[in-house]
Amino acid sequence: MATAIPVLPEPQARALASAYAAAVSVRRWRGAAVLVTIILLALVSGYLAHVRPVTLIANIGNFGSFIGRTIPDFSSGNVLADLRAWYWNFPAWLGLLGQTILIAYLGTLMGAVAAFTLCFVASANLARSRWSRVGARRLLEFCRTVPDIVFALIFVIAFGLGPMAGVFALAIHTTGALGKLFAEVVENIDMKPVEGLQATGASWIQTVRYGVLPQVAPGFASYALLRFEINVRGAGVMGFVGAGGIGQEFLVAIRNFYYSDVSAILLMIIATVIIIDLVTEQVRHRLIGFEGTR
Amino acid sequence: MSEIATTATEETGRGRLSAAARADLAGLKARHPEAFRLSPKSRALAILVPLAIIAVAFAAMVALDFSLIRILNGLSRLGRFAVLMMPPAPEGRFFVFLGALGETLGIAFLGTLTAALFAFPVAFLAARNVIPNIFVHFGTRRAFDVIRSVDTLIWALMWINVVGLGPFAGVLAIACSDFGSFGKLFSEAIEATDGKASEGIAASGGSRVHQVRFGLVPGVLPVIASQVLYYFESNTRSATIIGIVGAGGVGIYLTELIRVLELKQVAFLILMILVTVAIIDFISTRLRLAIIGNKKIV
After folding, report:
1. Residue A243 CB contacts under 8 Å (≥ 6 apart), including other chains
2. Does residue B22 or residue B126 have the better pLDDT?
3. ipTM over 0.85
4. Which H/E stretch holds residue B62?
């Protein structure tokens, strides 16, 4: 359905075209400047990070053959026996995987409890003194910025090798991460119930218990579950520094080139992480939908 | 409400209302029974769920060999470490640390950039409004999930086998694990766009490619840019630890110094990391605000 569009008179068209060109050229220049900055930064970073594209191209085949070698031999005759040979150490690995999940669970729980006690002090609308608020915020920031595995390195020396160090490392990092999110939830609440309670002469603790907690509980639970998901991944690598879980076994397998073990353990980790993702997602949807808040 | 608040505040009038209410508690209960009673189901949940959480926690502590003696010994040792950390001092290795931090930033920047460049085109495959074929976008999504569920440190171990020890393996590791996260986030951003722009382009005779280029890309680019900046921020943190497995950056020094208990240098290095991360946070928050304003990402 082609309809003829009337052509504008020459001077009007030229004015419009030049205005358009001017508007576009400003954006083009800005885009080019951003692009040049990114390329320069990338070159500097490439120099700093010793990027060697030649090595990559020369060795990219290794990655393929590495993946290829991790695939176990399967003969058509007895798949079951091959499977058993591939997962020869299945009960031990399953135990370590369970340990990994427990590390994540305890770390999340301890961190959530600590974050819970700190977040009311750290939130702008409930904190009673400015100094306690600033102090709590700085503490949370410190816990959040130092990576969990650095804490694990120190704790392994202090508490000895084993899952306990991993639990405490995850707990401290979780405190920082959840404390910030919890404080944000608390800052977004409706203040009317709080004011109502204060008007009846309720103490600070009573105000928090009856005015704030019912509003924030679903949000807190949802964030804690999300953190659990992240911590399962984190607990999987705690073993790299000797802090328990399946990581130790994986490190041994990959360092000693036990190829089929690498793929077997990796598949188990991936499956666990995905299953836990799916389950917590369901629970979180129900939590949020159930309460109707947030 | 409990009796905690029975302080002598009657003179000021603050507690008078609560005192009056408490005096008439029986009457209030009779008149508003629903405010004082939970339904049996929610009462059962309120008791059972915390009980289950605590029971599992205790079982976990037993399973993970928690012992009070080890905790107390560990705490006293940690206290001694804290004393040994004071005062933080570089002990002549300031420039070595600075170089390693530069390497760390390089790893984070290049890793994030590579991941974003590769994830951007692939994310369109995972977006329902671009590729309506369910097998393609569902399959791409699951592939992203699998890549995402492998930790950066595990990717680093695998890349070390390919390109050898060093920061380059770190770049590739961050690029790989972020490829999964970016793919998921980008495709969600693409699906959240308003379809009107593409419809307009289709109506004026634009092809499918035109619709994506002029209808979708301008809408998602700011969101994507802010997500990339956010990940750069978080990758500066991950890049500090990637050296633990030998993939470059400041983590190598951190591991070695902790192992040999050079705690003054450890404390100094951690301070340097905190300052660097704070600077990067500041810059990227500013840039994000300039790009999308005060909106929440994701």
Report:
1. A152, A155, A156, A161, A162, A163, A165, A166, A169
2. B126
3. no
4. helix B40-63
Residues B217-241 have pLDDT tens digits of 888 888 888 888 888 888 888 888 8
- pLDDT at residue A267 above 60? yes
Q: How many CB pairs under 8 A join A and B?
A: 192
Please report, as a single letter, which amino acid is at residue A212: V
* Helix, strand, coil % in chain B, rounded to nearest 5: 80, 0, 20
Distance CA B2, CA B17 (A): 15
pTM: predicted TM-score of the whole model, two decimal places = 0.80
B285-294 long-range contacts (CB < 8 A, ≥24 apart) are B287/B229, B288/B226, B288/B229, B288/B230, B291/B222, B291/B225, B291/B226, B291/B229, B292/B222, B292/B223, B292/B225, B292/B226
Per-residue pLDDT, A290: 53
Measured between beta carbons, the chain A residues lying within 8 angstroms of B11 are none
Q: How distant is the Cα of A266 from the closest Cα of chain B, in angstroms?
A: 8
User: Cα dist. A99→A238, A248, A271, B264 in Å?
Assistant: 11, 12, 15, 34
Q: Quick check: A164 and B66 CB within 8 A? A: yes
B280 contacts in chain A (CB < 8 Å): none
Closest alpha carbon to A185 in A214, A210, A220, A138 = A220
Q: Which residues of B touch A164 (CB under 8 A)?
A: 64-66, 70-71, 74
